Amino acid sequence: MTAVTVLSLPLGVSRRIEKLAKEAGRTPAQMLKFVIRDGLEHTEYAVREANAGLAELETGKRIPLEQIRKHIEARRKQRARAVR
User: Fold this and answer.
1) Which of 2, 13, 34, 38 has the fewest CB atoms within 10 Å distance of its CB?
2) CA-based R_g, the chain, Å
């Protein structure tokens, strides 16, 4: 089942969709469906994660700043080794 929706896009966005569609061998309408689906999935994920984090804060759960700094530094070192 599909629904028809009229959507006005800024010219720059429309051109990007057209270019992407051409590169993918699809029509702009087909490409827009993929872009919306993938963007929607990412946005739903981001909202779920943000809400989960806020819920943890409301329960009083906190992570000390020093623990966050250590985690970030460990990730930096890990990524630097992976790049070599």
Assistant:
1) 2
2) 20
Tokens representing residue 44 in the block: 């739903």
Q: Residues 6 or more apart from 27 whose CB is under 8 A from it? A: 21
Give the closest residue to 5 by CA, choosing from 29, 28, 40.
Answer: 29
Token pair of 31, please?
A: 């490409």
Rounded distance, CA 73 to CA 35, Å?
34
Tokens of 8: 């006005």
Q: What is the pLDDT of residues 19-61, one digit of tens each?
A: 999 999 999 999 999 999 999 999 999 999 999 999 999 998 8
Of the chain, the end-to-end C-alpha distance in Å amounts to 49
Are 38 and 46 in contact, with CB atoms under 8 Å apart?
A: no
Using alpha carbons, select from 36, 32, 37, 33 the residue that is nearest to residue 16: 32
